[in-house]
Design goal:
Chain lengths: ~35, ~230
Amino acid sequence: MNHEGYVWAAYAVTALLMAIEPWLVWRRRRRAQAVSE
Amino acid sequence: MTWTRFASPPRFDALAAALLPWLWGAAALLAAAGLYIGFLVAPTDAQQGEAYRIVFIHVPAAWMSMLVYLAMAGWSAVSWAFNARMAAMLARALAPTGALFTVIALWTGAAWGKPTWGTWWVWDARLTSELLLLFLYLGHIALTEAIDDVRRADRAGALLAIVGALNVPVIYFSVRWWNTLHQGASVSFDAAPKMAATMLAAMLLMTLAFWAYAFAVVFLRARAIVLEREAAA
């Protein structure tokens, strides 16, 4: 009864979300940069 | 140098640009150290087995979800009182990151609840008030995005953020005020920690990693907002 699957699921979703957010923000800034130039 | 020096968007932009590489680096190093101690040094829990290791992201994410909201409400109050542009931009830059930490806290809590409580979700005071926090963040984002006039959007968002801050103490003290399935605080200001030193070290390192991540991503988003507003002006 180690429940390792739940631990993996918790960490995998967290890592995914915390990788996507900076990428989306970086893309938003790049778009804003392109418009302002 | 006065505290208003960085209220100027160009000065803030230069400061954020200089800090960003350090913040990303600190977040990565602290997370690596926290995960190393959390998975390779901290022992398996006698009662919960491996499932307890979710604590190393669940508690930091839950703390951050509340702290980011308080920061958002604080900048909103500054923007409301002084009509400060940069404060309003920072408040808006904080909302999506706060929502993200709230989703992480709820999801990791569900993934921890299933093996230990036997259920993904219960409508107890802690979980329900945390879900309400997510709705406050989403409501703030939706409200500010729905109003075209930037100044009116900032003021409406600020009001919602300030009023919604009442929910934060409700979340924090819910496990004391009501009889909840959720356990009480593992670490609090008025009692010794209720966990082993290695577990506590891993949790605190992950908290610092989340802090550095939050500063980095919010500064990056604030820089994008500064540019967007310059372009629109």
